[in-house]
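Researcher: Structure for this, please.
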Amino acid sequence: MQIATARKIRNPVAPTSQAATSSSQLQLSKPKMPNRRFVNELSDGEAIEQVFLASEKQLRTNRNGNLYLQVRLNDRTGSVTSMLWNASQKHHDAFDNGDFVRVKGTAQLYNGGMQILAKQFDKVDSSAIDESDFVTLSNQKLESMLGRVAELLRSMSNVHLRNLAECYLVDDSFMSGLRSAPAGVKNHHAYHGGLLEHILSLMEVCQLVAPRYPQLNVDLLLMGAFLHDSGKIRELTYSPDLGYSDAGQLLGHLVQGVSMLDEMIAETEKQANEPFPVDLANQLRHMIVSHHGQYEYGSPKLPMTLEAITLHHLDNLDAKIHSVSKLIEEDVNKSSPWTVYHPSIGRKIYKGNTP
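Model: Predicted structure, token format:
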């Protein structure tokens, strides 16, 4: 089998309105914003008039029973929560998740992170948008990463794993999802293509670490790194805004990853005209379901093989380095060697004094 040639995939963040809005409810605007301010550049108390991609829109009730609109605002550098107080159903219905909106308001530091207190949301005509402001990874970068993943998988010496990998690589639907999906909605690699970036980074780390420990099965570890988060392609939605599918909410990516693996094993057996080794299949399934490492983190099984234990720790390392790097990059204490305190990790991060 040969990997399918590179396909032209529609830009995952190209704006498409999910529901028509009547002209009486909303008037489209075409703002020209010469001085773009990205999420990671916002400072406490700064006046905001900027365009973002909207997601996770919710009309909520505060403790006094008044309605407010909460929206997740995104650009290529990250995302920020925004609130419009004293909102109504009309404000909620004025735009959809996946629309571009111009936000007027004020940036505010709250609980270690930035938020925007909005005064106004206006839906924006997509023709006024520079899509590069909302794309973290370029098409060229994505194609390069896909090629490197294929190269690593085809380097495996185990013929069964190589045949299995080929079935994933030639599956247009899977590869399109891998190219577009994030690794998460809010945590590490939470942007289009983030899943591919995370998987490739982890595979590269596995290839570096494995020679130091000859007792590890490098092919099994490499394939486990490729498969561990594959279920996120079905768990998450990402066209254009990020969220969770119904199946994702009900099943999660561990279950879906195993289900996808079983489908691909069946296809491998059909193509190779021979059974896939049962023990090898079970070890791959185990690496998927155990890679979170602890029951309280969602793993139904603890890692019980050398490769599964290694995969868990290397996966956690890649995710943590990426997450902490983003905290440093987006920190509002620009002149301080320390970040603000982050309750989610229970500490500040030292950035150093080197300019």
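Researcher: Any notable elements?
Model: The radius of gyration is 22 Å. The first strand starts at residue 47 and ends at 61.
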